[in-house]
Amino acid sequence: METFDAIVVGAGVAGLTAARLLAQAGQGVLVLEARDRIGGRTWTEHADGFTTDRGASWIHGIDGNPLAQVVDAFGMRSVEFTVGSYQSHSRPIAYYGPAGERLSEEASHAFGEDIREFDSHLAATIGVSVPGSSYADAIEETLTALDWEASRAARVREFMYHRAEEQYGVSAGNLDAHGLDDDSVEGDEVVFPEGFGELAAHLAKGLDIRLDHVVTRVQWSPDGARVMCGQGGFSAAKVIVTVPIGILKSGDFEFSPALPEPLTDAIAGFEMNNFEKVFLRFPRKFWDHDVYAIRQQGDAGTWWHSWYDLTDLHGVPTLLTFAAGPSALETRGWSDGHIAESVLQALRGIYGELVETPEHVLVTNWQDDPFSRGSYAYMTPGSRTEHHDLLATPVAGVLHLAGEATWGEDPATVTAALRSGHRAAQNILGRELPFKTLSDRI
């Protein structure tokens, strides 16, 4: 049985970050990855001359963000594309009312002001919400207190429900009231013309990574650990497990003995979401110019309500929308063509005969990915925000968990993955490690 100082399970950003820092410190490190590629949920597809991020795309706020420092140190080219989270007013948006008419600038501004006012009241509602309350409970309680006219309240309600879906891939009724507490952006947001997958490629250089190694069992004690997979077993003094919540809850991944109860309780409060990207590449641009997004209000936007213009990034007319929450569940198992036709039907409600047949359609399928079982984790009603960081509590000085779900300040992001891997490495080495060293050679 091969023996190492540390074994890292998972070659996503969290695992690669931890492994690189440990290797730079002189540790003998092995990375075991179930997939036939590195990167985890940071996955860039290069096909037919186009670059598409099937997984993570954005750095959500570069101010004071160590991830921004790391990608700069690696020389990764980025461009500003500030979505401002799921906001009503962050950049020019073409809003269409329930009947398909484009809202005037004045009407769009008034709607944005409604969202601002509602958000301030919603924050107060959430602040005093009872444990177990859902995000939907907080929305409805806030609307009741405001007592707005019915159509005004309806537009705000649907926006807030869509926010839960697009930010966390779950219906508002299944998300804890505090599930969007982290929903803020500090500074510009950026994307990567050559793909976010470049980050994993840089982090992986010089590491011992074994692909197609599906870990099924981690056997640990205060004396060390054994990691079992189809190719046999490996032993190490320390183990960092970075698999997603969906795998930790699947029954296909076992800890022996079981994790301590505080950690298992925390894991039980999270679920993997239902969230897919839908890219449509067209021969010509038929939609509104000088806007970065199109949004449909009312029943017509129940499933497909927001489209983002990626034309400048992709170099050809391209729209991105999301199957998120209920729509992802309903369309799960549909063919790409079926999903595309559903999206096009919604666009025809706005643009009519101007809508053309797309030249290319790409739909992600994270819900059925056997090594993630969803895109990222969310808090179910009754879970607590501190459960994120609780998951990173070292066990017996041997076992460490990392990954986007284990970082409380900004979960569900690549920033969270990077910082969680960094924390795990620091915990093992017992000293602070500057992020800038990640770009150094091993």
Give a verbal description of the structure:
By secondary structure, the chain is an alpha/beta fold. The longest helix has 23 residues, at 105-127. Among the domains are: 2-47 and 194-272 and 376-439, FAD/NAD(P)-binding domain, CATH 3.50.50.60; 107-174, no CATH class. Strand 9 and strand 10 form a beta hairpin. The protein contains 13 helices and 20 strands. The protein is globular, with a radius of gyration of 22 Å. Helix 1 (13-24) packs parallel to helix 13.
Low-confidence runs (pLDDT<50, min 5 residues)?
none
Say what oligomer this is. single chain
Broad CATH class of one domain: Alpha Beta
CATH superfamily placement of one domain: FAD/NAD(P)-binding domain
The CATH topology name of one domain reads: FAD/NAD(P)-binding domain
The percentage helix is 25-40%
Integer average pLDDT: 96
Sheet with most strands: 8 strands, mixed
Distance between the termini: 25 Å
Share of β-strand residues: 15-25%
How many runs of DSSP E, i.e. beta strands?
A: 20
| CATH-level-2 architecture of one domain | 3-Layer(bba) Sandwich
What structural class is derived from the secondary structure elements? Answer: alpha/beta
Shape descriptor: globular
